[in-house]
């Protein structure tokens, strides 16, 4: 999709691409189909970094957002499994799962002029789960 939009992005002289990844592309997440899912999300994060370097000369910025567990219809089945939900919430410093608006607001910010010096970054929107470390 980025390649198809490339000519338009290049001509705009101030473009921003925001990919949606997952924390599964940043840390190990034990869910069904986790390995393949994590590999694809990790690839998005690397694509973000590579395009940031390759396309910066055309003033095209690329970033990705890596949400944790977010209240969405897609994640509803995970939220219904008490063991999975408790696993996420117990390791999340903010003690809850996220809301869709908390992800979309970061997307909006990354597209604004105020984010014009941010490129090549993967921003985790996960209530602190990916930085929590090991609990003893």
Structure commentary:
- The structure is a single chain.
- The model has no long low-confidence stretch (mean pLDDT 91).
- The protein has helices spanning 2-12, 34-55, 76-80, 82-91, 100-111; strands at residues 15-20, 60-67, 70-71, 98-99, 122-125.
- The strands form two sheets. A three-stranded parallel β-sheet has the order 1-2-5, sandwiched between helices. Strands 3-4 form a two-stranded parallel sheet.
- The protein is α/β, with parallel strands linked by helices and 136 residues long.
- The chain starts with a helix and ends in an 11-residue tail after the last strand.
- It is built from five helices and five strands, in the order H-E-H-E-E-H-H-E-H-E.
Residue-averaged pLDDT: 91
User: End-to-end distance, in Å?
Assistant: 44 Å
Question: Helix/strand-derived class?
Answer: alpha/beta
The number of strands is 5
Strand order within the widest beta sheet = 1-2-5
DSSP strand (E) fraction? 15-25%
Shape: elongated
Contiguous helical run count: 5
Task: Offer a quick outline of the entry.
This protein is of the alpha/beta class and 136 residues long. The chain contains five helices and five strands, in the order αβαββααβαβ.
